[in-house]
Amino acid sequence: EDKPLPKGEHKLQLYSMGTPNGVKATIMLEELVELFPDFEYDAWLIPINGVQFTSGFQGINPNSKVPAMVDHSEKTPVRVFESGSILMYLADKYDKDGVFLPKEYPARAECQSWLMWQMGSAPFIGGGFGHFFNYAPIKIEYAINRYAMETKRLLDVLDKHLGEGNKKYVCGDQYTIADMAIWPWIGWLVDGKLYSAGEFLKVEEYKNVCAWSKRIGERPAVKRGIMVNRPWGEKSSQLHNRHARSDFETKTQDKLEAALSM
Full-prediction pTM beyond 0.85? Predict the structure, then answer.
């Protein structure tokens, strides 16, 4: 279908949905909003019900997956797709002091390594465990056990890593894009917000991961980031399209529907 994408007034245009991968991008964008008084962006909800296959979206992501972003601040607009790529692009371009992505080695390499760890592990958690445990029309015990075992292995890897030196964040004392990438998948999993699988996976055994997840979830930018492009849950937690800082107070779905009913 030939359908152009909407465009707002800001230089950065995000096209996404509040999935774990989509939330990575909106958390980072809201962290930059928190960090810089003049930073702004537009975020448009792209429901994954076919819209991702239209010409406009495929023009910025040939792989037809959310999230995708266009930066109109350059002479030629820059398209950026894949959530990890968006995190690195935003950090490199706007985070000049290395607040979220260290500038010096070995800290930078450590952050990038854990970011890639998440990118490589997500298919086992989502496409593997999540699919067969929660979505598959036929329950296949072997598939569920196979991917549950791998998911628990990944939880154990992170738990042991956080426990070494009692790390506050994945890269030590510094909160980075590695935390932003890992949290929507593993954090939501241990918090019971992903596949309702906490009891099955015995997530309470991973005490370091649970404490880390709680710490991340308490950040103001994270609380806002998970609302952006979210089309489910409590209406007050849904901000389908985000164009200004004030939208969290005035444009959530409960307020929009209440205004329409008046």
Answer: yes
